From TrEMBL:
Protein name per UniProt: Uncharacterized protein
Record flagged with keyword Transmembrane: yes
Keyword line: Membrane, Transmembrane, Transmembrane helix
Keyword Transmembrane helix: yes
Protein's organism: Actinoplanes flavus
Length: 114
């Protein structure tokens, strides 16, 4: 039995948004504990990618695929730049956003059931 409310939401986009938010907080905590100054461009990039993924959670949102593709590019780029510290989960979030964007394309081409 599938839940009716879940049909309008994309779990891959939700996971990408959640990972981006968690990694942004983790990055700020780690840098703060080390006594350093965070790279604000990195924090802003993670926040922007997370917000784009949040927008892409709703499958009926206009330009959803564009937002998810932009989020994927940001997350993959930031993840590769931070690969030696917090980057690996961010790369995973980028892959999830990319999967959600590509899956959104295939869902549009399907015929409605019934």
């Amino acid at each position: 039995m599938t839940l009716r409310w879940w049909n309008g939401w994309d779990p891959a986009a939700a996971a990408a948004a959640a990972i981006a938010a968690v990694m942004m907080v983790l990055y700020l905590v780690l840098i703060g504990r080390q006594g350093g100054e965070p790279a604000w461009w990195f924090v802003v990039g993670l926040a922007a990618a997370g917000l784009l993924s949040v927008y892409g959670i709703v499958r009926a949102a206009p330009k959803r695929r564009v937002a998810l593709a932009a989020s994927a590019v940001l997350l993959l780029g930031l993840g590769l730049l931070g690969l030696l510290s917090v980057g690996l989960p961010i790369v995973g979030a980028g892959v999830l956003a990319l999967v959600a964007a590509v899956r959104g394309r295939s869902e549009r081409t399907r015929l409605p059931a019934g």
